[in-house]
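Standup, Tuesday
Yesterday: got the pipeline producing structure tokens again.
Today: sanity-check two examples.
Blockers: none.

Example 1:
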Amino acid sequence: MSEQAQRGEAFRYESFETDPATGLLTCRYSVDGQQFAERFTLGPEGDWASPLAHAAARLVFLLAGVSYYKTAAPPVIDLGETAITRRERGFLREFYLEGLGEFAHHNTLDLSALRIEARTAPETPRPAARAVPETIRTLVPFGGGIDSIVTAEQVRQQADAALFVVSRPADRFAAIERPAAVTGLPVVRADREIDPLLLRSRELGFLNGHVPVTGILSAVAILAAVLAGRDAVVMSNEWSASVPTREYNGRQVNHQYSKSESFEAGFREVLADAGLPDYFSLLRPRTELWVGQKFAALREYHDTFRSCNRAFHIDKALRLDHWCGHCDKCCFIDLILAPFMAISDLERIFAGGDLPPAPASREPLANPGQADRFRALLGTLADSKPFECVGEVNECRAAAMLAARRADRADCKLLQELAAEVMALPDAPSDAEIAAMLRPVGRHFIPAWIAASDLAAR
């Protein structure tokens, strides 16, 4: 089927509405007459009638549309009655083009001519920056992985922190709930109900693929922060989230675009224009290697966290209650923690927490069959970095080299082979470069009230 035959003619933003009595936000869209609705339930608490709540709900409406646009990926986006500022237009277009880069790659589409039709909202003076209150009240979006655990533990030391968790209605992921319970922090929740038609994409002939979901959930977190009277949303997106996954049609494609510095910078500008809460990633200048080192010291979480893809399957019957040991996330987490944790601890984690290791260990580094999956992470296979939330190639290479030096890994044949392959590369990281990965790197937007001492001069 040709690209033109697959694609629709126009995607339209219809309307959004809130029901303060139930705490429900409903966003409506259409593609060539096909109607869609997405619903977010945050509860009736808070002032839903306030201008800030309206501005935040409108932002959710703007970003959540991407999930329905992708069903036919038409060349025109019509904002209908919703006027947008010039800054919002630029931000929204980048959100679609960059956020759907992986989707375009997998569907062999060129979205570069995408046109947004909308009335231009008048420019208004940006509200004055809020004074920093004596006690900062923060909201930390929490996914149960090592990144958000490290962030939660850092933030709670300097602010009144609450976690933010988004789930499907009447569903909870144990991989999130168990480590959330360990934090002991209050949890602010939102239920997200995508239109059931999206779950029938294959049957209905819709285009399908990855969307920048972190961007959508970031907007929902801002709305939740407004309703809960929170001053800032603190994300857990590290430096490597800005590194492209690969190139397609002359454009860099980044699976983690809505976790990137570029998204964060643009989103912050849009939020500031509307006077909405602050938004920044506490891990922006940190590498995954640094995060792994910090997490290794948080032993109370070791038997509760689980980043395995199979822990988050929509179908509960296919959802695992243990690490699968085979997916890209299992391999990456094992690799990034191996320099800092005893092999016995990682064997226990991948075996299922308190359980003793199975005769055939589920730890990926103990499985020679995972060699090429690790080589994809290490960049020793051409153009093979997985479309996943995993670290940058040099971080992974540094992790392999450090882990291979551990006495308890001397007999880990796969790891020793992988480390030898990395060290044979002409651009293998030096000890000085590895040490630099454990210090701050790159730009960040972390405010002074929470900046660590090693960021003070940056």
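Example 2:
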Amino acid sequence: MKFENRITRLFDIDYPIIQAGMIWASGWKLASAVSNAGGLGLIGAGSMYPDVLKEHLTKCKAATDKPFGVNLPLLYPDIDQHVKHIIEARVPIVFTSAGNPKTWTSILKAEGIKVVHVVSSAKFALKSQDAGVDAVVAEGFEAGGHNGREETTTFCLIPNVRASIEIPLIAAGGIGSGRSMYAAMALGAEGVQVGSRFVCSEEASSHLNFKQAVMDSQEGGTQLSLKKHTPVRLLKNKFFENVFNAESSGASLEELELLLGRGRAKKGMFEGDLEEGELEIGQVSSMINDILPAAAIVSGIWEEFLAAKERPFFNV
């Protein structure tokens, strides 16, 4: 049964569950599977060359007749080529992140594309609304990957953003179950964006070694790092320890960039190097214990959300 609210109407989806466009995990297989299951699947363009994105768009359109979108980091060097392919493929929805939403929002919306921007503070949510986006994702400190410098947790961020804007609000960061979805909605969100839980899906393109490391992780197994460069939450491994030690000893921005090198995230998440690779994942990883089909993840979250809605946990 289709759930009706501003998010489901905006995207024409059954459930207000959005799969995050994670680099090296969110290809056409995952995006189409989530969309076919009634959520909104996103292709993660941040780890793709323009010709690779074009291929994923073609395959995703062939695999689903449901709406899907693209997550587009605005700092991507070939973003104009990405936008060109998105427009040519008539992608209906784009989630932008890591940059100024004013740059591309009007161009995308002129093509009939719905635009959502990812923020980490109420201030930037308001700026995004002023830029004309259709909705915002407010992502808390718990989230994996690149994070806001404010280090505001989801439970504090969502009510602050809700009080600041009038457009639809999607919660992200630490959400991997129906119960956490229920909590986010109670705080004012109208949908949720889920990342880490979908890393451990059958359709995610992330390496099996990385998926296993996520399932093996425990509470406290991730930490926000590289605050001098670009804050990013990482699973603790040898590379993380090198970064931590460098930061603790006062390494300069140039020294940190040298330590990062090129292709570090690909090495870890896509190629499965658990020692020298960068492993981006959220705090919710400590509660992920299995690899499931994306459709099972969507239905599991939704069914648990409905159960929580019908029987609040404080009455158990």
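Quick observation on example 2: The first strand starts at residue 17 and ends at 19. The chain has two domains: 6-205+288-315, 208-284.
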